[in-house]
Structures are given as structure tokens and as C-alpha cells.
């Protein structure tokens, strides 16, 4: 006989048996809804079902013999497998299904007369009359249910009925039994209960149970650990798409297709044209950007603060200090842009991968997000170039300064997209990208004259026309801004300008080369990121 069992204790025991360590507060959150729905009748239902199970085994189908505690433990194990292989929000939906199954078992027990026998006995009916009435009702109910268990007897024995009625009348306060006497989860009974509740879905459910998990019948709960290592890909194609309700319980099930409403929305979206999908992704990205207004405001503040600090340090730069000013500014701006883009794409990576696996175009997402990224780059370029030009009193045309800054940020955002796609962890992508930006943009640039003096010692590596500086984005952006600033200053001596121009490979008439390099390589990096994103989504 099993007494009152606390919901939290049952859930914790199931977690312990499966070797899963719950997060802080997870047990309380998962059990709260169950306690609210079931605490009032739990003690009475457990005592009645467990004390009468043995006496009624020969007269009732197996679907009626389930105690609420057994059903709860059984459904908790299904939920724990979902917790271990999916996210917490999937487990919350699974617990709503647990409560529904418990309610279904209560209705089945009530229809079989389990909850009303004690009242009938207290009303003064004799043992024989009560047993005859119960047996007649149970026989009719069994014929209606068409029990799936072949071991259920179809005859009523008077001695068993007398024993059942006597047990019902004499047992008023059941005593608690040791944990080892508690009923084990019976998955065959679960299948029968599902068929009793919804016959239209029972055939699919039984076929999936027998074809995938192989845990029906007499198999023990130890098979759950072996089953958890299997993959849903082993199912036949006909079984893989029949029941969303059961697919959510499969081990290693990928989250994201759990919600039928979300799945219907994605199915509707993937039938649209590419342009419609692009507009959808732009709209969704705009909503997400509005929600992240605080973070975006912080990025704008960092751009403004960096430009202001560099302006206060360099004041009105001399001709020799102009490359150093732009080198420091461009390295700082490219670092900020790269980190911001990595966090932006990293936050959406999981959702995008789920949608792509369900048929949504990755190109549509890539185009939609890049449209908004380009607007972000324009905003940052306006803020950074305006503050730097105002504090340093630069003579360069504002359009050329804005164009060079915007080209640099376009390249940096493509750099960030590539590293966000290459690394699964956002933190790893940030660390590696920052190191490469400092090396490629600073050490290899050759844009600052002290660095470019390495041409004299290592000409093949630091040659301005074919060496390593050709691979550095700062070699193009810094030279572009520096040359424009030098030629914009009034009263410049040609000999003085020639001293600085000897480190650079083009003059004012060849500035388009720098623009082509920054925009071309930035687009190439975006294309590589797109290919990597598609490969990762189907990995």
C-alpha cells in the first residue's frame, strides 16, 4: 500500500534515477503547476488506486489499474528526457501534458467506479450486492474499452469481488510503504490509457512506441538510459512525421519545433517568395533591435567616447601624426563593430538554424539582417567621424571622411559575421576576432610610417605593393583618410608631402582602389559567412 507521495520528492527521485542534475529552482518550478492541480485529491486517489489494484486485476483492463502516482512517475520520466535533451521552456510545455494525462487517468478511474466504491460501501450496501454491481459495471466498461491486454480475465469471480469489497470497506487510512514497494512505471498501461482517451490517435501512438523507444511491455526503466543515446534519425520516414505529440518526447529531440503554432508559422513562411521572407526578417530584426535599444545606445556611446578621447589626445595633428591618429581610430572602430556584429548574429544563431532546417531560406535572413547592419554602420560612422573631425579640426572633406569610415565599418561587420559563423561560442569568436583585428589591422598594416620602415629590412614581407600590408584593412583605410587629409590642408610643401607619400602606393587620383578593396573584401567575407551558416544549420 502506498501512501501520500509529495510531487517534489517524486520528481527529484526520477531526476536522480536518470542521472540528471537539475538547475537551481527547476524542481520547484516544474512541480508547482502539478501541485496546484493535483494536491487536493492526491492522497485519496493514491490510497484508493493502490489498495484496490491487486483485487481488481482480474476484473479490469490494464488502463484502469494505473494509480495516479504511477502515471505521474511515468510521465515525469518522459519529461526528464525532454529536459536533458532540450531547453527548459520545452520541459514546461511537457508538464502541461503531464497534468492532462493525470486528469485523463482520473476520468478513466471514475468511469470504472474506482472513486465511488467507498461511498457505495458507506451507504450501507452489502458486500455481495456491491460486488455484483461493480462487476456488472466493470464488465460493460471493459467491453466498451476493448482492452488491449490479452492477460485480462473476462470472468468475474465472487471470491475476488468479496475480497475487493472487503478491502475497500476495511482500509480507511493506508500506511506508507517503503520506496521499493512503489509500483514501477508501466509503459504498456500508458499506451492503453492513450487509446482509451483518444482512439483516433492510438494507432499512431502505439506504432511509434514500438518502433522507436522499444520500452513497451515488460522492459525496465533501465532501458531509458540506453534509449537516450539513440537518435530520432533512426526512425523510418513514415514514422518521423506522424505525431508531433510523441516526437517531442524522443531523446535528443531538437528544440524549436515543439510548438505547433510556431511550426505552422514557419511552414507558412517557407512557402513565400524570397523577397517576402526578406521583408519578414527585416521586420523581425527591427523589433529585436528596438528591444535592444539599451545595448545599441551603449555602442553609440562607445563610438563617441573613443573619437572624443582620440581627439583630445592628438588635438590638431601634424602631418606626421595624421596616420597615427587614423590608425588608432580605425582599429578602435573596427573592434567595436566586429564585437557588436558577433553578438548580434550569435544571439539569433539558434533560432535561424531551426528555421533553416525547416525550410526557411538562409539567404533571406542573411539579406534582411545585413540591410539593418548597414544602417547601423552608417549611424556609427556618422557619430564617430563627426566627433573626431570636430575635436581635431581636420581639413579633410566630411564626405570623404564619412566614406572612408563607412567603408571600414562595412569591412569590419563582414569580419564579425564570418567569425560568428565559424565559432559556436560567442565568447570564443569575440576573443579570436579581437586578436586578429589587432594583428592584421595594426602589425601588418604598414600604414603608420614607423611600421612601414620595416620595408627597408624585410622588403619582401612589408613591400607596399605586394607584401603583407596588402592584406591589411588598415593599410587601405588609414592611407585613404591620411592622403585625403594631407592634400586638403592649405599651404602644404610638395617636398614635405613627398616624404610621407613614399610609404603609400597611390595618390589622390587612385583613391577608388581603397574603396574597392574594403567593399570587395567585406562582401567576400559576408559570402563566406553565409556558406558557413548554411553548413552549420544542417550539421
TrEMBL record:
GO terms for molecular function: ATPase-coupled transmembrane transporter activity. The keyword Calcium does not apply. Keywords: Membrane, Transmembrane, Transmembrane helix, Transport. It comes from Pycnococcus provasolii. The chain crosses the membrane at residues 294-313, 325-347, 378-396, 408-424, 430-447, 508-525. GO terms for cellular component: membrane. It is a multi-pass membrane protein. Residues 139-186 are annotated as: Disordered. Residues 165-179 have a biased composition (Low complexity). The keyword DNA repair does not apply. This is ABC-2 type transporter domain-containing protein. It is found in: Membrane.
